[in-house]
Every structure is written in C-alpha cells, then in structure tokens.
Design a protein that fits this description.
Elements: H1 14-36, H2 39-43, H3 51-62, H4 66-69, H5 74-77, H6 82-99, H7 103-121, H8 128-143, H9 159-182, H10 186-189, H11 194-200, H12 206-212, H13 216-231, H14 233-236, H15 241-261, H16 267-275, H17 281-287, H18 289-297, H19 308-314, H20 326-349, H21 355-365, E1 384-392, E2 399-400, H22 423-432, H23 440-451, H24 454-457, E3 472-482, H25 485-491, E4 495-507
Antiparallel strand pairs: 1-2, 1-3, 3-4
Length: about 500
C-alpha cells in the first residue's frame, strides 16, 4: 500500500484480468462456432461417429458409472438435435461473457457445455487445446466477479485465482519444453527438429514453406531460442515485474511465430490470453493509457444508467464486487497445485512415480478433462504421411477427393485457416501414422463415400463424383515433402510425394 492507502498499479492486475475474460469469451465463440459447422459430418446422426449410439454403447458397457466417466448434458437432453443447440448456447454465453454480463455463471455454463461437446465428439474433440480450454475456463470461474450486470470499472481479481492461472500458464509452457528433452528424440537434443517440423506438422501454412527453405543454422538457432523461452521464461513468471513482463512478451512472440507457420486452431490465442493476467496495471497504463485509465480510474463500479438500488436488490454490492470466498479459493489451490505437480512427475522423470496414488487421483479427475498434463510435439514426426481417398467407377480410373486444408493436390497452396479447426483434416494426420485397425472410423469414412452421404461429403473441398457415388473406394498412403524454390517456380507445385502402400485396399459396398 502507498501513503494514500491504495495499492500501487504495479501490484494490481485489474485490466489484464478484465481483458483476459473478454479474450476467453472470444475463444469460446470461435470454438463453438467452428464445431457447429462440422457437427453433422463428424458426430451427427449420419456422420462418421454418431454421438447418440456412442452414448448408448458407453451406458451398456459401464452401466451407472457411465454418467461419471463421460460427464455430459447429452445424458439429459440426448445427442441428436441437442448438440447444435448446445453450440448455439455456447455462442450466446460467449457473447454475454464478452459483454460482462454474469461472467462467473457464464463461465461455469461454458465449461459444462464444452465438456459435454468434447465427450460427444470422441476422437474429433480430444486435442490438447480442448483440454486447455476446459481447464482455463474452470480456473477463470474463480477469477471472474459474481456480478449480474456489466461493470463500468475493471475490478481487482482475487490474488489466489490469478496465481492459479499463472500456474497453469507455467505448466503449459515449461512442460512443453521439458517433454521434448525427456522424450529421447534426438532431433530435439541436437537442435535439428525445426529442419523438418515445418513440412511435417499437421496443417502448415504457406509461410511454413518459405521458412522451411531457410538454412540449417537458422533452424538450429530458432530451436535453441524456443528452448530458452519454454524452459527458462516460465520461471520468470514468478519473478519481479520486469522479468515477468519480459517473459510474458517473449512467450507471446513465440505464439505469434507459431501461428504464422502452423494452423493450431485457437491454441495460440488461448496461450496469448494467458499472458494477459501476467501484465500489471502499470504496464497496461503505459501501453494503452487512454483505454486502461477509463477502466482503472473510474469511481463508478456500474454503468451510469444502472441504478445502484437495482444492483443492491440483485446481490450484496456493499463490498463493491463479489468474488469466490477466500476459503473456496484456498481449497481449490490446495487441490490443483499438488495434483498437477504429481501428474507432471512422470514427464520429468520418465519412470513411474507414486503409481497407485497417482493412478487413483488421475482416474477420479480425468473424466472432467480440467486438470491436465501438457506437452506438444514431444517426439518429432518424420516423414510426413498423408492419406489420399480415391474413388472409381471401373476400378481403373481413380479420382481423388480433396480436403479443404489437408495436403492433397500437389499444386494446392497450404492454407491459413486458424483459429478454425477442420477436425477431420487434423485427425487424418494422426490416422496416417497408424493403421486402419487403430482408426476404424477411416473405414466408416470410406463407406460414407461409397454411399454419397451428404453430411460427410460437406467436410470435403471437392467431390469428383457429384452425380452419383463411386463403385469403388481406396485409400493410398503417400510420403509428402515440400518442394524447393526451383521446382515450385517451374511447376507451381508446393508439394512432392511418393506412394508407399494401400492404407485401405480398393473396396465396394458389396
């Protein structure tokens, strides 16, 4: 406290927390909207993995335990027409959160809605950023004010709630760097991983092609810089403000560079949002003085047209803003921090640590996908494998189906589609690394192509059999590489490829 009895701006985080909640609202809007436009083809009644039969199968196998092992509102409302309504509700709640209306209740409902969607989505909604969004939303409930009307002034967040988000931010970044070293992948240890990463990542952008052409010393220097940011900068989040600010800004720059060269959906936006509560009010006042001062220095808590008497009737506003009680925050911190430390230990030691205790804890918490372990690209994929779906009427002339964003046609320029996630394109990248037995849904996709299912065909960019479905379908696995500048200048092709094998032999409905 200073002499006037107020907390200096360098020790408060009101504006960053206010901006964080608006950013989280925007990310939820993107996530629900992106999922909505793909629902029918992925998990709709005529999709690849229909959700309603999946819930029936889980209930038959697990009995009453199914409601706990697969928590979802779909148990109450069904998984047919309810899923589009759930996405619409998620979008509406996101707008309310962005407007500052009932932020904590909106976050609680958004968490429940997205958890329900991820459960129904099966393999198509089982990415690390889905889990990260759930964990971030759950922790943000304790950061947000329990007000019903929009606030005119950005309230100071509870200290414990903000530190829980910083702890999540630390785990996300530090573990992402640590698992690269503990995985044993030699390309990370000799700093050569980025010489292949740009062409082997799931959905590269066109900028990735240009960066891939840079010399090896640049990629090794970039890899070393990435390790500095992921392994050292996270510790600075707990350091004095000058180090904390620089660490957050370095991580933000890394996220922007990753977003420039790869389509990682809303992951980069979500990580950037976690940077915001690390920057104090003094920094924001210096960076954007006019806007920050309006929200930080106003004497009014509520918008001028809102009657204070009306506010008082809605909830007790004598203390200004209602947040979660301190004892609740303390209990949450006492659960989250030890649990996530134990959960991360296997990533650090690469051998079992407290297996019985940890196993019981993980099994109890895992269904809610909200206290997670992180670490992207622990092992670098090399080479790039792609599945090309082809149809034929006579078994001799084969024509390929093209996807909107996945590499296929060699002249198709890599797209920049993030923060939208084409989930079928993404999942096919993983399927190419395994076998059809491990990815039975690929066979379902072949069947839908043979039947000409409209909902599934809507997930493709082109359908070479628009008049009637083909008689035969096959899936060929190729090895893909970026072309060099001379080849692209001569042929216009961004990719070159070599056929490897049949992932699915030519097949028909018979």
């Amino acid at each position: 406290m200073n002499r006037a009895g107020t907390t200096p701006a360098s020790d408060t985080f009101s504006f960053g927390s206010w901006l964080f909640l608006r950013s989280l609202a925007l990310i939820h809007f993107i996530a629900f909207t992106s999922a909505w436009i793909q629902l029918n083809g992925l998990i709709g009644p005529h999709g690849l993995l229909p959700a309603q039969p999946f819930f029936h199968a889980v209930q038959e196998q697990l009995g009453a335990a199914a409601y706990y092992q697969l928590p979802s509102l779909c148990w109450i409302f069904g998984a047919g027409k309810f899923l589009p309504a759930l996405c619409a509700a998620g979008g509406a709640l996101s707008l309310l959160l962005f407007a500052g209306i009932a932020p904590a209740p909106c976050l609680a409902l958004l968490w429940a809605a997205y958890l329900s969607l991820c459960g129904a989505g099966q393999v198509f909604f089982n990415f690390q950023w889905d889990a990260l969004l759930l964990e971030t939303t759950l922790l943000a409930i304790f950061l947000a004010p329990w007000s019903l009307l929009p606030l005119w002034r950005a309230p100071a967040p509870p200290r414990v709630a903000r530190w829980l988000l910083v702890w999540l931010f630390f785990r996300l970044m530090f573990l992402s760097g640590l698992v690269k070293l503990t995985s044993g992948d030699p390309t990370w240890r000799n700093l050569s991983a980025l010489t292949i990463h740009y062409e082997t990542q799931p959905l590269p952008t066109q900028f990735a092609w240009f960066v891939h052409q840079l010399p090896g010393w640049f990629h090794r220097a970039s890899c070393a810089g990435m390790f500095v940011i992921e392994l050292i900068a996270p510790f600075c989040l707990f350091a004095p403000r000058a180090f904390r600010h620089r660490a957050a800004l370095l991580i933000a720059i890394l996220m922007l560079l990753i977003a420039l060269t790869g389509n990682y959906t809303f992951f980069n936006l979500l990580t950037l949002a976690l940077c915001l509560p690390c920057l104090d009010d003094a920094w924001w006042t210096s960076a954007c003085p006019r806007f920050a001062r309006i929200l930080l220095s106003s004497d009014r808590l509520w918008p001028p047209r809102v009657s204070q008497s009306l506010v008082d009737t809605l909830f007790d506003a004598t203390a200004g803003v209602c947040h979660a009680p301190r004892w609740v925050l303390g209990a949450v911190a006492a659960l989250v921090i030890p649990f996530t430390v134990l959960q991360a230990l296997p990533s650090v030691t690469r051998r079992p640590v407290l297996p019985e205790l940890l196993g019981a804890l993980v099994n109890g918490v895992a269904p809610f996908r909200s206290l997670n372990n992180y670490g992207l690209f622990a092992v670098m994929t090399n080479p790039r494998l792609e599945l090309i779906f082809e149809g034929s009427d006579d078994g001799r002339d084969w024509r390929a189906y093209e996807f909107p964003d996945k590499p296929g046609d060699l002249a198709h320029r890599p797209t920049w589609v993030a923060p939208h996630q084409p989930r079928l394109d993404w999942q096919l990248w993983f399927a190419a690394l395994g076998s059809p037995a491990q990815n039975r849904w690929v066979l379902h996709l072949c069947e839908h192509l043979l039947r000409g299912t409209p909902d599934v065909l809507a997930l493709f960019a082109t359908n070479p059999f628009a008049q009637k479905p083909p008689r035969f379908v096959r899936v060929v696995r190729y090895e893909y590489h970026f072309t060099d500048p001379a080849t692209r200048a001569r042929s216009g092709q961004w990719w070159r490829r070599t056929p490897l094998d049949f992932y699915v032999q030519p097949a028909s409905l018979k």
